[in-house]
């Protein structure tokens, strides 16, 4: 969930009233926001870097507010205030207009070289805008929030904003060899080639996370004006020449990316949020983008879409009985201007460009429910009549674990993920013989594979509990995973039962006795015949030679039991003899 | 026969005494340790009303070991004085004497001796007076003779400061005859034996009383794991509510079932390497239901079923990628897809509790794997009010009655709501679960009828368990680092029972 931090006093000023923290928290809750933290710059710095560094910092109160991940229109003070004011019916939702310029339209021409790296671009102009320090900061902050969320850390979309008065169109969006791109980037005093910049930014805490997006491509995207001035090298950095300041009056915005839909949404969000500060409020100057195929489009789209939803559908989905007029009113409070039309049961809803999250009638139903107030909805029990069934494997597991405890063994719960070493080297097996599934992106060795046996988890539990009085008698009934090309995903779980006995003596007879007890519980008699079970001398690298047997039940091998090999005991950092038993319980379903 | 010789002697003396006797006096008379007499008193007390014993504490002054030495040998200053011959003694030599340092300064302040620093071979010490009175020794001897009261308060406190004298409290018993006094006490039997039962001798024997304050001996037993005890209770609750358990025994899942089928777009952050464990081997799912896959693809990329879709290029390769399931909702999707293939549609209630995996940053409350609890109801005409109603019933079975619902966003439910409950201990509303109505873009491509709604909710198993058992670090609960003692000691899991009141602070 993205978190927006706003200055409390600025927020209250914009909302036209003050709230206590509790009142504001309540308002957020009702609207689907969360007042996550009340803090200040000073507090944040002192928490992160110590109170000395925080000495000069501001102690203006900050509200950190969590916004839903699909509401890009709530990621800045401007949007939050607009949303809440409309919700509280203090203002009407503004109408955003795209206007043609008095003079020539700004043009951005995309060349075909961009196709392989970052094919899409959109643009717009905010004309005669008036920034203040606060507005400017919010403008920059919104771009950062969009970059982190919908833009997927600039991979899908990257935003560049420029002082239009320092540039002269038309602009060209192209891609060039890194060595052929040379410009002075933001916050640097001299020109660098793109190759040099990529090197410099490897140590830049903020920018290094974006380098991978273009790093290994033969061509890097770049935008020039008609005089060859570099506007930006998306998605990494803007040029210094066109940098915007508090005094900038005309802003040229370009968004480049790999996802056309998202680029358009991002542009719409920026211009709807900040056209508030333009001389002609809520108007945005169009820009023309010419694609390599020669087709040209005008942006921003600022599309208003109409949906018609039947009032009784909303009532039926939410579980309320409101008149169509009331429902229209509720939706209007959610920034969705609505009116009753047709037969009086239909509601026509206008979806503004700020609400890209509304893609289906169910999104409209939710907004009606939010405006109605979730906590005002009458709770009822569905009349769905059903007979419950347990999953047979879990039913068997539940029954067995109780009797395992009754047999004096203690249940443990160990991780399904572990290191290769745990299931192979430490048990004297080669990893290729385990048929284990391998994880491609583990952060540590603890998550290299899914376990193929429960034994390592039990032995590690003993190692962590060596101070406990002996004997230790542990068991676990849980799933292991084996590669299996007969399943749709190529791997299959098996429900295993594993038990260990750890004491000054190996206690094979105790583990053997436990097996006899388990078979008794499963109603499998001892004996060679098809219905019975038997153990036969066997061997395995994890077991002490001559002290291992394979267990056959109902005609198939279900596992092994025996005294563990001293090497295994040592590798798990244990010191006492230990016997173990591990079987697959699925044949007993 | 009495309980040992001391007890027997005590009874004899008591018989002869008029009124009673003091345990310390008796110890002195008998020449035994006081503790032996106290033991005898206690064992006689245990017999009932044979004797009465009243605890008395008396204070008395006693010499410390240094005090006793001084009472015998004289004070350090006196010993220093006596060691100086008429011709004087070199100060350095004097300091080497055992009492040198302490004695020298005391003798100086008593003006018994003086130091001459003008002598050629270093400072020399001479007597000032011919004789002196060693008051310290005399006073200590008075204490030894039991005349401590004769000393003044000031004199005693000075000796105490010099650690020569200490005040000790002595606990003694004043013993008198009880209502059932007798000198012939018979030996008590400790336990009933088979011989006593067969011979009937138990009828004539007295038995030693039990100490009911002692702890019993815990039985040797196995134990169930606390988290899995809670899992059993949640299963029980769902079964009581008529929910059928879904199969979840497939940790490995394709991205298709884990994300795409749930209408979670392919660029969604949850599908990032940072959040999800992907598989190297087997890297891709071998089979997908291709008809259904086509419908899912169309819904994502172009929309349909009344949806605008996400309008991006949906890739089959992305959907084939295998992973460790990040939620059990993937299993729910498989079950709902199977339900959709059954005609005509039959309403269903499902639940599951099983492991899920996240490639997250680990801390005290987050592990790479945890258990997810999920409940699902599919029926015609289900409403948000129904979801809230069923949540109310579910949580009331957990003993949670105060609920509040907050609008939220989940990629595959709309409307969505987070469930909050009031925590009386923390005095605030805490999130206890997440819920919603599955999106039509998820259900309709499966083939479910249009007027069927599916409501669902989920929560983690670990969080309520940690709250229930007061565990702050998840590693103490799950995994091999668990403290087995905690497993041995954990009580039954009764989710609806009132929590144990916190222990009252005892006065120190």
Automatic annotation (TrEMBL), chain A:
Catalytic activity: tRNA(Phe) + L-phenylalanine + ATP = L-phenylalanyl-tRNA(Phe) + AMP + diphosphate + H(+)
Pfam families: B3_4, B5, PhetRS_B1, tRNA_synthFbeta
Enzyme Commission number(s) of this protein: 6.1.1.20
Keywords of this entry: Aminoacyl-tRNA synthetase, ATP-binding, Cytoplasm, Ligase, Magnesium, Metal-binding, Nucleotide-binding, Protein biosynthesis
Source superkingdom: Eukaryota
Cofactor: Mg(2+)
CDD domains linked to this entry: PheRS_beta_core
Single GO cellular component term: phenylalanine-tRNA ligase complex
Keyword rRNA-binding: no
One GO process term, biological-process aspect: phenylalanyl-tRNA aminoacylation
InterPro entries noted in UniProt: aa-tRNA-synth_II/BPL/LPL (IPR045864), B3/B4_tRNA-bd (IPR005146), DNA-bd_dom_put_sf (IPR009061), Phe-tRNA-ligase_IIc_bsu (IPR045060), Phe-tRNA-synth_IIc_bsu_arc_euk (IPR004531), Phe-tRNA_synthase-like_B3/B4 (IPR020825), PheRS_beta_core (IPR041616), PhetRS_B1 (IPR040659)
Molecular function (Gene Ontology), one example: RNA binding
Domain B5 stretches: 302-379
Intracellular or extracellular location(s): Cytoplasm
Family of the protein in this entry: Belongs to the phenylalanyl-tRNA synthetase beta subunit family. Type 2 subfamily.
Self-association and partners: Heterotetramer; dimer of two heterodimers formed by FARSA and FARSB.
Record's protein name: Phenylalanine--tRNA ligase beta subunit
Organism: Callithrix jacchus (White-tufted-ear marmoset)
Gene that encodes the chain: FARSB
From TrEMBL, chain B:
InterPro entries for this protein: aa-tRNA-synth_II (IPR006195), aa-tRNA-synth_II/BPL/LPL (IPR045864), Phe-tRNA-synth_IIc_asu (IPR004529), Phenylalanyl-tRNA_Synthase (IPR002319), PheRS_DBD1 (IPR040724), PheRS_DBD2 (IPR040586), PheRS_DBD3 (IPR040725), WH_DNA-bd_sf (IPR036390)
GO BP annotations, alphabetical order: phenylalanyl-tRNA aminoacylation; protein heterotetramerization
Keywords: Acetylation, Aminoacyl-tRNA synthetase, ATP-binding, Cytoplasm, Ligase, Magnesium, Metal-binding, Nucleotide-binding, Phosphoprotein, Protein biosynthesis
Annotated ranges, domain Aminoacyl-transfer RNA synthetases class-II family profile: 229-502
Entry EC no(s): 6.1.1.20
Pfam families in the cross-refs: PheRS_DBD1, PheRS_DBD2, PheRS_DBD3, tRNA-synt_2d
Reactions listed under catalytic activity: tRNA(Phe) + L-phenylalanine + ATP = L-phenylalanyl-tRNA(Phe) + AMP + diphosphate + H(+)
GO cellular component: cytosol; phenylalanine-tRNA ligase complex
Cellular compartment(s): Cytoplasm
Major subcellular location class: cytoplasm
MF GO annotations: ATP binding; metal ion binding; phenylalanine-tRNA ligase activity; tRNA binding
PROSITE patterns membership: AA_TRNA_LIGASE_II
SUBUNIT field: Heterotetramer; dimer of two heterodimers formed by FARSA and FARSB.
Family according to the record: Belongs to the class-II aminoacyl-tRNA synthetase family. Phe-tRNA synthetase alpha subunit type 2 subfamily.
Entry protein name: Phenylalanine--tRNA ligase alpha subunit
Organism expressing this protein natively: Callithrix jacchus (White-tufted-ear marmoset)
Gene for this chain: FARSA
């Amino acid at each position: 969930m993205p978190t927006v931090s706003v200055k409390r006093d600025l927020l209250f000023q914009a909302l036209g009233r003050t709230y206590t923290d509790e009142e504001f928290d309540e308002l957020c809750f009702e609207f689907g926001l969360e007042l996550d933290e009340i803090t200040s710059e000073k507090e944040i710095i002192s928490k992160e870097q110590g109170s000395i560094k925080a000495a000069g910092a501001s102690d203006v109160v900050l509200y950190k507010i969590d916004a839903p991940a699909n509401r890009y229109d709530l990621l800045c003070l401007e949007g939050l205030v607009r949303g809440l004011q409309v919700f509280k019916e203090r203002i009407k939702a503004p109408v955003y207009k795209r206007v043609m310029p008095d003079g020539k339209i700004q043009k951005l021409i995309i060349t075909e070289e961009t196709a392989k790296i970052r094919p899409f671009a959109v643009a717009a102009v905010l004309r005669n805008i008036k920034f203040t320090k606060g507005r400017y900061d919010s403008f920059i902050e919104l771009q950062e929030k969009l970059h982190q969320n919908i833009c997927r850390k600039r991979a899908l979309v990257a935003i560049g904003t420029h002082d239009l008065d320092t540039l002269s169109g038309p602009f060209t969006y192209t891609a060039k060899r890194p060595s052929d791109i040379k410009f002075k980037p933001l916050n640097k005093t001299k020109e660098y080639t793109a190759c040099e910049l990529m090197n410099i930014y490897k140590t830049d805490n903020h920018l290094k996370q974006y380098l991978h997006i273009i790093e290994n491509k033969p061509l890097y995207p770049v935008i020039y004006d008609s005089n060859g001035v570099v506007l930006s090298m998306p998605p990494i950095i803007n040029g210094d020449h066109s940098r915007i300041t508090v005094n900038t009056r005309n802003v040229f915005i370009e968004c480049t990316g790999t996802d056309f839909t998202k680029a358009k949404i991002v542009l719409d969000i920026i211009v709807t949020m900040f056209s508030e500060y333009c001389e002609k409020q809520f108007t945005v100057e169009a820009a023309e983008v010419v694609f390599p195929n020669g087709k040209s489009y005008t942006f921003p789209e600022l599309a208003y879409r109409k949906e018609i939803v039947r009032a009784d559908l909303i009532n039926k989905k939410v579980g309320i009985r409101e008149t169509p007029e009331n429902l229209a009113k509720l939706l209007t409070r959610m920034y969705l201007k609505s009116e009753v039309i047709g037969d009086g049961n239909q509601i026509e809803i206008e979806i503004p460009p700020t609400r890209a999250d509304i893609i289906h009638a169910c999104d409209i139903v939710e907004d009606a429910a939010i405006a109605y107030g979730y906590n005002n909805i009458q709770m009822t029990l569905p009349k769905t009549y059903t007979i419950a069934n347990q999953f047979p494997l879990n039913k068997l597991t539940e029954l067995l674990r109780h009797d395992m405890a009754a047999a004096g063994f203690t249940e443990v719960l160990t991780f399904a993920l572990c290191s290769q070493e745990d299931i192979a080297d430490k048990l004297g097996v080669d990893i290729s013989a385990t048929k284990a599934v391998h994880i491609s992106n583990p952060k540590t060795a603890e998550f290299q594979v899914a376990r193929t046996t429960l034994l390592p988890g039990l032995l590690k539990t003993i190692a962590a509990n060596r101070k406990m009085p002996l004997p230790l008698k542990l068991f676990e009934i849980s799933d292991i995973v084996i590669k299996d090309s007969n399943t749709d995903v190529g791997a299959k779980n098996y429900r295993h039962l594993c038990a260990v006995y750890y004491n000054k003596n190996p206690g094979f007879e105790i583990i053997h006795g436990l097996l006899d007890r388990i078979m008794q519980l499963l109603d499998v008699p001892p004996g060679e015949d098809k219905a019975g079970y038997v153990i036969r001398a066997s061997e395995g690298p994890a077991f002490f030679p001559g002290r291992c047997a394979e267990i056959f039940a109902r005609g198939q091998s279900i596992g092994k039991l025996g005294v563990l090999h001293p090497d295994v005991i040592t590798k798990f950092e244990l010191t006492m003899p230990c016997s173990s038993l591990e079987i697959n319980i699925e044949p007993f379903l | 026969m009495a309980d040992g010789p001391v007890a027997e002697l005590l009874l004899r003396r008591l018989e002869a005494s008029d009124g009673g006797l003091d345990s310390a006096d008796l110890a002195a008379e008998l020449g035994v340790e006081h503790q032996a007499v106290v033991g005898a008193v206690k064992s006689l007390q245990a017999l009932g009303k044979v004797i009465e014993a009243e605890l008395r504490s008396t204070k008395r002054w006693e010499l410390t070991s240094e005090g006793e030495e001084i009472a015998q040998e004289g004070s350090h200053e006196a010993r220093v004085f006596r060691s100086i011959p008429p011709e004087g003694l070199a100060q350095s030599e004097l300091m080497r004497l055992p009492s040198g340092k302490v004695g020298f300064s005391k003798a100086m302040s008593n003006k018994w001796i003086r130091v001459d620093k003008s002598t050629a071979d270093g400072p020399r010490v001479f007597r000032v007076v011919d004789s002196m009175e060693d008051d310290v020794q005399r006073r200590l001897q008075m204490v030894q003779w039991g005349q401590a009261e004769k000393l003044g308060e000031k004199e005693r406190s000075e000796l105490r400061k010099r650690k020569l004298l200490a005040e000790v409290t002595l606990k003694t018993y004043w013993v008198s005859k009880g209502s059932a006094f007798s000198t012939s006490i018979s030996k008590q039997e400790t336990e009933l034996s088979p011989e006593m039962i067969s011979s009937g001798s138990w009828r004539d024997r007295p038995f030693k009383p039990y100490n009911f304050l002692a702890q019993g001996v815990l039985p040797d037993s196995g134990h169930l794991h606390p988290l899995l005890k809670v899992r059993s209770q949640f299963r029980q609750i769902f079964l009581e509510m008529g929910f059928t358990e879904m199969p979840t025994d497939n940790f490995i899942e394709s991205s298709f079932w884990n994300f795409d089928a749930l209408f979670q777009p392919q660029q969604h952050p949850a599908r990032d390497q940072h959040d999800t464990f992907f598989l190297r081997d087997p890297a891709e799912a071998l089979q997908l239901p291709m008809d259904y896959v086509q419908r899912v693809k169309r819904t994502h990329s172009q929309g349909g079923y009344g949806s605008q879709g996400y309008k991006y290029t949906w890739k089959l390769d992305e959907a084939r990628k295998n992973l460790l399931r990040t939620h059990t909702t993937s299993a729910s999707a498989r079950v709902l897809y199977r339900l959709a293939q059954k005609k005509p549609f039959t309403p269903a209630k499902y639940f599951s509790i099983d492991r899920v995996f996240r490639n997250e940053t680990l801390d005290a409350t987050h592990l790479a794997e945890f258990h997810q609890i999920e409940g699902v109801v599919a029926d015609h005409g289900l409403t948000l009010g129904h979801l809230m109603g069923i949540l109310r019933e579910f949580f009331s079975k957990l003993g949670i009655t105060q609920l509040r619902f907050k609008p939220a966003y989940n990629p595959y439910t709309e409307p969505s709501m987070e469930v909050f409950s009031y925590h009386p201990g923390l005095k605030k509303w805490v999130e206890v679960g997440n819920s919603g109505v599955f999106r039509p873009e998820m259900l309709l491509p499966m083939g479910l009828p249009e007027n069927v709604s599916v409501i669902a909710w989920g929560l983690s198993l670990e969080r309520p368990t940690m709250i229930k058992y007061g565990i702050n670090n998840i590693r103490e609960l799950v995994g091999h680092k668990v403290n087995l003692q905690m497993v041995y000691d954990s009580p039954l899991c009764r989710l609806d029972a009132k929590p144990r009141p916190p222990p009252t602070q005892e006065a120190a």
